[in-house]
Design a protein that fits this description.
This protein has 197 residues and is an alpha/beta fold. It contains eight helices and six strands; from the N terminus they run αβαβαβααβααβαβ. Helix 3 links the parallel strand 2 and strand 3. Bound molecules: adenosine-5'-triphosphate (ATP) and magnesium ion. Required for both de novo synthesis of the corrin ring for the assimilation of exogenous corrinoids. Participates in the adenosylation of a variety of incomplete and complete corrinoids.
């Protein structure tokens, strides 16, 4: 048997396996995705999925739990396509040094998140940097988990941020841990507009 024939048989076997797995996946429901870890690419993954969703004509909503002081390329674009943004807007928590103020801001934006999570017209809700609100106990864990659990059946949710808590990982359908191998910032290169935000 020559190499070409061997390759053909191998590919055929692989195709049969993949087809069988595809046939097995029969469940239709909204997903909970958690994108966590220390590497770069968590929020960009979330926003990439929002673009997919909107590109198919579905409605999506974005809630950002940390950033907001500066301009965001994603917001500039997506608001033009009717994607509502709810932004905490207090900058990075470790800059504010104001725990009570942070909790108040987190609670305020959480009310908007809760409204999206109760509204079946949203095919996708991105909860960007939500993990920190749970890690720092800025929001009530049970309340957040229950809002996620009781969301409309066909609604998908993406949670991003480092250090996702165990309960969130357990509840999720898909969890990706983005590993940092290297990051430009560590070599002294400044964050770039149009790439980092
Ligand atoms: P991005 O928004 O680029 O997908 P991210 O959501 O994975 O990043 P965050 O922790 O939210 O990561 O980072 C926000 C900002 O910090 C971004 O400008 C990003 O480029 C930068 N950043 C991400 N990961 C690292 C890292 N490991 N070291 C230094 N800076 C980072
Ligand atoms: Mg991020």
């Amino acid at each position: 048997m020559d190499a070409q024939e061997k390759h053909k048989i191998k590919s055929q076997k692989m195709k049969e396996k993949v087809d069988a797995r595809v046939a097995q996946a029969q469940i239709e429901k909204g997903l909970l995705l958690v994108i966590t870890g220390n590497g770069k690419g968590k929020s960009t993954s979330g926003f990439g999925t929002v673009v997919r969703c909107v590109g198919h004509g579905y409605k999506a909503a974005v809630v950002q739990f940390i950033k907001g002081k500066w301009e965001s390329g994603e917001r500039n674009l997506l608001e033009q396509y009717g994607v509502p943004f709810a932004v905490m807007g207090t900058g990075f928590t470790w800059n504010t040094q104001d725990r009570a103020g942070d909790i108040e801001a987190a609670t305020r934006v959480w009310q908007q998140a809760k409204a999206f999570l109760a509204d079946p017209q949203y095919h996708l809700v991105l909860l960007d940097e939500l993990t920190y609100m749970l890690g720092y106990d800025y929001l009530d864990k049970e309340e957040v988990l229950s809002a996620l659990k009781n969301r409309p059946e066909n609604q998908s949710v993406i949670v991003t941020g480092r250090g996702a808590i165990r309960e969130l990982r357990d509840m999720a359908d898909t969890v990706s841990e983005i590993k940092e191998e290297k990051h430009a910032f560590k070599a002294g290169i400044k964050a770039r507009k149009g790439v980092d935000w």
